[in-house]
Amino acid sequence: MSKIKLFGNTSAAHVAAREPRKPNRPRRHGRGRRALIAVSVVLAALAALYCLFAFSDIPFIAKWRTIYIQTAMDTMNHQWLATAFLPQSVIDEAMAARNGAMQEQTQHNSSDDWADRPDATPAPSGDNGTSENDGLSEDGFYELFWELDRGSMEDYLSEHPEALEDGWENLYINEAGLDDDGTSIRTAMGEQVLAIDVPNQILLVRVSGTGYRGVLAVAKDSSRLSVQNSAYLGDTGQTAGQIAEANGGVLAMTGSAFIDDGGVSNGGTLNGYAMSDGVGQGDHLGWSYKRIELREDNYFYIVDASSTVDPDTTDAVEFTPAIIVDGVRLNTWGWDSLNPRAVIGQSDKGEILMLVIEGRLLDSLGVSVDECGAILERHNCMQAMNLDGGTSAILWYDGEYVTRCSNTALPEGRTLPNAFVYKGGRSK
């Protein structure tokens, strides 16, 4: 019995050991072929989409292709986003639109008597407002800051009665800092108020829309405005805040463009002509650019950069394009790129309008020049010109920057050859 049992166990083991292996069956290639087909379909779809984007004449696609190309080509460091993916002929076609728009710009210049129209507000006296606010009444306040929604202003004052402790003439509200949330006050146009500075006659409001945000400063007394140079012009530039603080400024923004040899952001050398307090520097940019002149009557005038400077001009810079001339918003279809923007203008009341739009940021891509014109129209702008934008676009108020630079490594913005500076009239 034991032998039989042993034999049985042994035979089973040996049978298992001796059982021949089944030959490997060839792998099926069905899955590989399906994956290859799927990849091919995806690549074909991407190729079709690329051709559609790069070459289609469909208006919607052509518009956004132009925006994409102009946005890339308007930067110093990101032009490869267009040149690496699109044929040069397509890029040239998109940029040709700007050349045509530049030609059209030569036809639009401010009339010499625009400020003398029957409905014009008399020019400021030029005393820097040292006494004109004394004894300001409530009605006078709302006349001066005509943009405000009176209901929201009254609600704010009921919650913050301390703001009026020193009278309407000394009312000062400032929640415009980058870490501030702004006030609950609104303008009649629906904009959030960031600051109201009666002593210096300044209003700051938040402007925003789909894909962008920025700040508009309304400075009521144009006699306080001038172009001020970097202390080291011709060598190195200074930030807008540094230039303002050196010249008694309470508000400042981007001025002239500059020649940036080597891309080191040294704004010491002017690009174009500029005038500061009656003294001119630099060379004119030529017919394709515009010049904005602040004259002795404290009004802005926009002319071709190749023209002779008016003898009454006290301050000036050159750039392009003009956006609004004599109250007419121009066709700026050659500047459709979405970028940080800086614009200077003047309202029908003679108020200085300083607009800076943040760009190239996750929550603010930037805007076209035309969108800047739409914003300024809400404030009855009569003259407006685009300034050097990009990393140069910055707005400074009362000791701090109130807009973010597109380069987060430069919170104070680039160093500039000059800046538009609005001088303080009274201490708060």
Description:
The chain has 428 residues and is α+β, with helices and mostly antiparallel strands. It has two domains: 39-102, no CATH class; 109-123 and 175-423, no CATH class. The protein is 26% helix and 22% strand. It is built from nine helices and 19 strands. The strands form four sheets. The chain has a nine-stranded antiparallel β-sheet with strand order 1-2-3-4-15-14-16-12-13, covered by helices on one side. A five-stranded antiparallel β-sheet has the order 5-19-6-17-18, covered by helices on one side. Strand 3 (202-209) and strand 4 (212-219) form a beta hairpin. The chain is globular, with a radius of gyration of 31 Å. Residues 1-8 have low confidence and may be disordered.
* Major β-sheet profile: 9 strands, antiparallel
Provide the gyration radius in Å.
31 Å
> Element order, helices and strands?
HHHHHHHEEEEEHEEEEEEEEEEHEEEE
Biggest sheet, spatial arrangement of strands: 1-2-3-4-15-14-16-12-13
The average pLDDT score comes to: 88
Query: Are there runs of 5+ residues with pLDDT below 50, and where?
Result: 1-8
The number of helices is 9
Strand content is: 15-25%
**Share of residues in helices:** 25-40%
Number of domains: 2
Distance between the termini: 117 Å
Structural class: alpha+beta
Overall geometric form: globular
Number of strands: 19
Structural descriptors:
about 425 residues; alpha+beta; 2 domains; nine-stranded antiparallel sheet; five-stranded antiparallel sheet; 9 helices; about 20% strand; disordered N terminus
